[in-house]
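Need tokens for this chain, all 179 residues.
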Amino acid sequence: MRKLKMWELRRKTVEEFRLGDKSPFIIVLDNIRSLNNIGSVFRTADCLKAEAVYLCGITATPPHRDIHKTALGATESVGWKYYKNTLDAINELKSSAYTIISLEQVEGSTPLQDFKPEKGFKYALVFGHEVKGVQQDIIDLSDHCLEIPQFGTKHSFNVSVSAGIVLWDMFTKLYYLKE
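Here are the structure tokens for all 179 residues:
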């Protein structure tokens, strides 16, 4: 095996990405405090062709050097919007026929591996504050709450890791698994 050179990866340009087809996902960051987590989510959104990232509440917005440090330019390719209040973002998404999915440990949550996204649907994936999680009023408006099963002593993954796991899982279920 030989490691590929950058030019061999045939990556899209920013313009090609912006004009290209997108996955049916909008990522909603509900009061994320870490700039590095925000940048990491942008990078994952680019890798999996998400439609956009919605930055809500205390979540910082580009341009910022600490976001840029982990996003590696993805803030230029992935569209984003800022909302002072997460409820405003969720209400707008609901009115645009998005299925609202919060990643949170709640009564009756669905284990990630059991959730089957459907082609033709649009999904808003809500990821919450690193300590407090997704706000209860957002959970109340959610169509589904997903939970990533965990087996160690910690009760949660880092928010950017969670976003990567959930997006990859849903992307592969939509585009690679045969029904």
